[in-house]
Design brief:
- This protein has an 11-stranded mixed β-sheet. Strands 2-5-8-11-14-17-20-23-26 form a 9-stranded parallel β-sheet, with no helix packed on it. It has an 8-stranded parallel β-sheet with strand order 3-6-9-12-15-18-21-24, with no helix packed on it.
- The protein is globular, with a radius of gyration of 22 Å.
- The chain is an alpha/beta fold and 295 residues long.
- Helix content is 17%, strand content 24%.
Length: 295
């Protein structure tokens, strides 16, 4: 199985791959699957119905697979699924899904989650993303491929972060982040195209120029020249020339959030919970306080 410290606790039933390293005081639950070549530094906890692919690294005090902090959760065997080659730095937390949200929190390949990142229930992360320190992703957030998120950013439930986008540090993201763009600010807004990111990912310079102009037409200071509303600007772009694949994806993404979304969040339309799903909490007996008394 590899190198397992004598103080590590591996429950019967856990499946441990080859060449796995478990440091001091790690805890592995009975339904966990750890792929080949994973390395756990000291005090890592992996529990629940969690499947971890090969070559992942977990730094001290990471907690993976704990039950969700969600009033809808009924205690079912919901899951966490992690791909290959990810890095989870100190104190990263990843919670399992909820029954009503699909039951799965899913992470792709070759992502980096820096200190204190929290991935809540039913979150989905693509491939090759970097999510910086203390970033908080609420339930049902989806992050597409090759995104970079600055530290202490916070994401509202059901937000989608489009591929190749950059979200600045301390951003409060309450709407879907368009692909290829830079978004930043407490009152978050699109600040332009993520030019440097696209260069690093090897996008063709001609394609970057096309996307830069498209982004400017949609969100730039002179965007109203192409239509008074975002919907009109989308129509102008779509009706004036053949679109590249990247242009088309950007326009489709923005249109979906604008027309089909709720408060700018497309995935909000997919939610299936009701007040009855939380009734066990809110319907519990209430404390009876005397006049003027407080808890």
């Amino acid at each position: 199985m590899g190198d397992i410290d004598r103080t590590a606790v591996v429950s019967p039933g856990a499946l441990i791959g080859r060449d796995v390293v478990l440091g001091p005081h790690c805890v592995i639950g009975p339904h966990v699957v750890l792929g080949d070549g994973c390395r756990l530094h000291n005090n890592v906890t992996i529990i629940g119905q969690t499947v971890v692919g090969s070559g992942n690294e977990f730094f001290p005090n990471a907690v993976i697979g704990a039950p969700p902090q969600d009033l809808k959760y009924k205690g079912g065997p919901t899951r966490v699924q992690i791909g290959e080659g990810n890095v989870f730095r100190e104190m990263v937390t990843v919670h399992a899904g909820t029954e009503i949200g699909g039951g799965l929190t899913r992470i792709g390949d070759h992502n980096r989650f820096l200190v204190g990142v929290h991935l809540a229930h039913d979150v989905a992360i693509g491939h090759r993303c970097v999510i910086a320190n203390q970033t908080q992703l609420a339930g049902h957030v989806h992050v597409e491929d090759c995104c970079h998120i600055g530290g202490v950013a916070a994401f509202h439930h059901f937000v989608t972060v489009g591929r190749y986008s950059y979200v600045g540090g301390m951003t409060r993201a309450t709407f879907d982040v368009p692909p290829y763009t830079k978004v930043a600010g407490y009152t978050a807004r699109v600040r332009g195209l993520n030019v440097e990111g696209l260069k690093r990912w090897g996008m063709d310079p001609a394609e970057i120029r096309v996307l830069r102009r498209t982004c400017s037409m949609l969100f730039g200071r002179r965007a109203e020249e192409y239509g008074a509303s975002l919907a009109e600007r989308l129509a102008f772009i779509e009706n004036n020339g053949q679109l590249t694949d990247h242009q088309r994806y950007l326009c489709e993404f923005v249109r979906r959030s604008l027309h089909d979304g709720v408060y700018g969040r497309h995935r909000e339309t997919l939610r299936r919970d009701t007040d009855r799903d939380r009734q066990a909490y809110y319907g519990a007996p209430k404390p009876h306080l005397a006049a003027g008394e407080t808890l």
